[in-house]
Inverse folding.
């Protein structure tokens, strides 16, 4: 069951869960060993042996179907960047599992001991899930709150650097495969001022204007480091304006320390232009889901600091 993107509900009769930035997974313990299924329908349990071991110990011979999220934590908060070290690794070493440990956050129970619970209400399914008494640290049942102000919960999520909230009608049944308005997700996006160090042209009608910007920020040593690129959020007029401004500052080499792998087709520029970008998360290797928001003439390039992205 999938949530609909939207504003937080203001009426009563809703429960709130935090949104965990990981990989959605269905767990089945109906065979000899627990199986983890991805949204694409592939079994991925070989990639997460510590989760499988925890499920086998906790559930035993009981037959259950759980819905939840595979999450990797960084100082107590979900990090998709850390999770990427485990995704698609079918035989992770013990060292890799220790360094980038993964936890399964179970937030719904669809079946227990052969009894289909999908037609039961959200609160009844949650009560049945709590009764399983799943232990940590590789298994967690994240909390939920009923009839708590939704905007307050979003602010709490923002203060703790979480991805957002999911609001679920307390009477809602579980609709497998459906995107329902009974579940509403509100995602928090971060915003940062970054320096442009280069640009590449677009394709087709945009081949003579800016297609994407290469972005950077200063680290604690005062070096300009590459943090990612952005290619969405521009109007056609802004793409032309950016091209006209950036060609005045063109230079032959990359302004980013130790970074020139995008040199083919890139126009390097002096790092004078500050722009605002919204993004979901900074992974250390790049920005997730960035979107251009505008030029910041009021921000000095000296104030563009790498650590402010974290």
């Amino acid at each position: 069951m999938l949530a609909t993107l939207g504003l937080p509900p203001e009426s009563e009769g809703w429960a709130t869960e935090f949104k965990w930035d990981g990989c959605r997974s269905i767990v089945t313990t109906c065979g000899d060993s627990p199986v983890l299924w991805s949204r694409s329908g592939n079994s991925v349990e070989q990639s997460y042996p510590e989760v499988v071991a925890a499920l086998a110990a906790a559930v035993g011979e009981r037959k259950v179907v759980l819905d939840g999220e595979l999450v990797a934590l960084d100082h107590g908060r979900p990090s998709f960047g850390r999770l990427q070290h485990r995704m698609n690794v079918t035989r992770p070493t013990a060292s890799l599992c220790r360094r980038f440990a993964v936890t399964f956050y179970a937030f719904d129970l669809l079946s227990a001991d052969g009894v289909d619970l999908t037609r039961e209400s959200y609160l009844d399914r949650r009560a049945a899930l709590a009764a399983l008494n799943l232990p940590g640290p590789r298994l967690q049942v994240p909390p939920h709150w009923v009839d708590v102000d939704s905007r307050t919960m979003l602010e709490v999520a923002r203060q703790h650097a979480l991805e957002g909230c999911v609001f679920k009608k307390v009477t809602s049944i579980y609709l497998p495969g459906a995107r329902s308005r009974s579940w509403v997700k509100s995602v928090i996006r971060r915003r940062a001022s970054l320096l442009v160090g280069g640009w590449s042209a677009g394709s087709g009608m945009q081949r003579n204007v800016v297609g994407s910007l290469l972005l950077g920020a200063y680290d604690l040593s005062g070096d300009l480091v590459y943090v990612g690129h952005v290619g969405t959020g521009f109007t056609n007029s802004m793409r032309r304006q950016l091209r006209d401004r950036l060609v005045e500052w063109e230079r032959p080499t990359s302004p980013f320390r130790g970074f020139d792998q995008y040199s083919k087709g890139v126009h390097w520029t002096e790092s004078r232009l500050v722009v605002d970008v919204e993004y979901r998360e900074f992974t250390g290797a790049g920005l997730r889901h960035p979107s251009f928001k505008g030029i910041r003439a009021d921000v000095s390039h000296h104030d563009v600091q790498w650590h402010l992205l974290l």
About this structure: The mean pLDDT is 91. The two ends are 31 Å apart (CA to CA). The chain has three domains: 1-20+142-188, 21-141, 190-309. The helical segments are 49-59, 80-83, 94-99, 122-131, 150-159, 236-246.
